[in-house]
Amino acid sequence: MTSQRVSVVEKILSANDQLAEQNRRILDEAGVFSVNLMASPGAGKTSLILKTIEKLAPTFRVGVIEGDTAPVTIDADKIVAAGMPAVQINTGGDCHLDAVMIGNALPSLPLAEIDLLIVENVGNLVCPAAFSLGTHANILIASVPEGDDKPYKYPNIYRGIDALILNKTDLLPYVPFDIDYFKQGVQILNPNAAFFPLSCKTNEGVSTWTGWLSSRIRHIG
Amino acid sequence: MHELAVTESILNIALEHAKRANAKQVTQLHLVIGNLSSIVDDSVQFYWDTISQGTMCEGAQLSFERIPARLTCQECGTTYTLDSELTLCPQCNSGRVKIVSGEEFRLDSIEIES
Prior knowledge:
Chain A is an alpha/beta fold. Chain A has one domain: Rossmann fold (3-Layer(aba) Sandwich), CATH 3.40.50. Chain A contains eight helices and eight strands. Chain B starts with a helix and ends with a strand. Chain B is elongated.
């Protein structure tokens, strides 16, 4: 019996990353721009998706993958009621979506007929950050009632995002939320992320977000 | 929470490299984890003890090399280490800083018997 040390030097989630690349190729070939929408529970993921569909519907068709930990179709039903195709992934208690789940869901969507795919990740600020899905952009929704310290407490999820939405800005007069302190944390972690303060309730700021998204969709389509 | 998926990946990578090296047994794994990676060592160890059973990796020790989160200020060039909370440059109070380490998340090497 001989002992030896074998060099490995491999990223721990490299298998997931490879499958994510495969998902990206499928989406690129179909000409579908895709986003991975992450947030804590209750930040307004489904509200933002519905608002986004409402604004984009005259121009673009939107498909949605809904990730949930339990076998409920509350969110997917709302999307279908808005006239857009939706697929529900039940993670069976898992706290995040991964590239395998997305790869399995893609064949259930009419990719040739849609321009934008929105993946609603499981509501969680820790685990989704570690798993690439293969989408073109990672978007995080923070919301005013969650508090201004979230970038400091959950730095990981702020690191890999392309755009940051701050939802429920209509509550700023009523909730102690220091927006400068919040933005300072974001600046340290990810100075290049686009920033969209908005309110799904009053519509303030929503068109700036959908304008940004539209330009990205046109770029790929 | 996602440590099970992470531990399964560690096992798969270790088994693949062990097989390639014609190993009979894996005795140790050297993991390099940055302090900004949201991974709890004890939780990985807990899952490891369960899922490695019946494989070439059963009984192998996990060693965690933790890499501190280090930031460099883009204004004054100061490099500092984060102890816990994210902070501005301690020298000039600037937020224009760059994370230079602390995001490592890899299996560096394994020790095998063949």
